[in-house]
C-alpha cells in the first residue's frame, strides 16, 4: 500500500487526534511557562521528561508487543490479551510509584526542593498518566482511531479547563499541572473501559502467562528504547546540573515550540507503527520493503516544511508565546527542527525492525547513540548549554538512524537470499 494513500485515508483521523493531544500538552507548557517562574517551568520540564521515560518503559514492555501480536490473534484470545496488558500496566505502575516515592524521600537532602516535590507528586499520579497512555496506544494498535479521537477530545477539554481553574484560583504550579494530567487518566479509563467492557477480559492467571511472551520481544524493545530515551531525556537534567533550572526552562520552552509539529509527527507514528504490524501479519516480508521505503519518503516530505518553518520563525514564536526572557533561544529551535527529519527516518527503520522481531538489532544501534551521549554529548551540554543539548540530540539520532538503515537493508538481503536458495 502506498504511504500517501494511507495518509489520505484512516490516518487523517490520527493526525487530527494527535493535534488535539498535542494542543493539550502544549497548553500545559504555556500555562506553566508564561504564568509561573522560569524555575517552575524548569521543574515541569524535568518532570515531563521523566514521564516520557516511564511511558517509554510501558511502551517497550507492554504496548509494542501488544501492537505486534494483537493482529495475529482472534476472538476471545484478543479480549484476554487486552485485559492482560492492563494488569501488566497496573503492576508496572505500582512498582514505579514505590521507586519514585523512595527516591523523593531518600534523595531529598541532595535534591533541589522543587525537584523533590516533582518526584513526590509523580509517585501518586504516574499510575493514571500511564493508564491514559496505555488506553490511547491500545486503540491505535487495534486501529480504532475514532475511539481514541473521541477520548482525546474530551480529555483535552478537561485538561485545559483544569489548568485555567488553577490559574484563576492562584494554584497553578508545576506540581498541580502534573496532577491535572493524572486526573485525565481517570477520565480516560472510565470512558474507555465502560465502552469496551465486552471486549476486555481480566484474568490474573492469563496475564502472568502472557508476561513471558511480552518479555521475549519487549526486553530488547525496552533496552533499545531505554538507551534512546536516556540519551535524549537526560540532556535537560544535565543542563540543570551544569547550569541551572532556568536553563532547563529555556529548553522546555524550545520543546514547546517544536511541539507544534507533534500533531503530524506523532500522529503518523501512532498510525504507522500498528499499520506496519498489520501489513506484515497479512503479507509477510515480501511487500514490506516498499512499504517502509515509501513511509520514509512520505515522512521526509511531511516534516521538511515544518523544519524550515522552525528555522526561519522559531525565535519569533518563542518571543510571542513564552515572552521576552526566552527570545534569544532561536538556534535551539532551529537545530531541533533539523532533528525532526532525522528522528522520522530512525522511527521508520526502527519500527520495521521491531515488526520483523529484530529488536535486538535496533538495540545495538541505540548503544552507539548512547555512547555518543556519554562522551561528546555531555561535553556539548557543558560548553554550549541548551544549544549543546540540541546538537547532541541531533547528532546522536543521526548515528542511530544510519545504523538502523544499514541493519534493515542487511535483514532484507538475508531474507532475499534465503528465498532464492529455497527455489534453487
**Main sheet summary:** none
Helix/strand-derived class?
Answer: mainly alpha
- The helical percent reads over 70%
* Amount of beta strand: under 5%
Ends distance: 30 Å
The succession of helices and strands, N to C, reads HHHHHHHHHHHHHH
Q: Give the overall shape.
A: globular
What's the rounded overall pLDDT mean?
80
Rg = 21 Å
Count of individual beta strands: 0
Structure annotation, total helices: 14
InterPro entries: Poly_Biosynth_Transport
Organism: Desulfocurvibacter africanus subsp. africanus str. Walvis Bay
Protein name: Polysaccharide biosynthesis protein
GO cellular component, one term: plasma membrane
Brief rundown of the structure:
This protein has 424 residues and is mainly alpha-helical. Helices cover 87% and strands 0% of the residues. It has one domain (3-422).
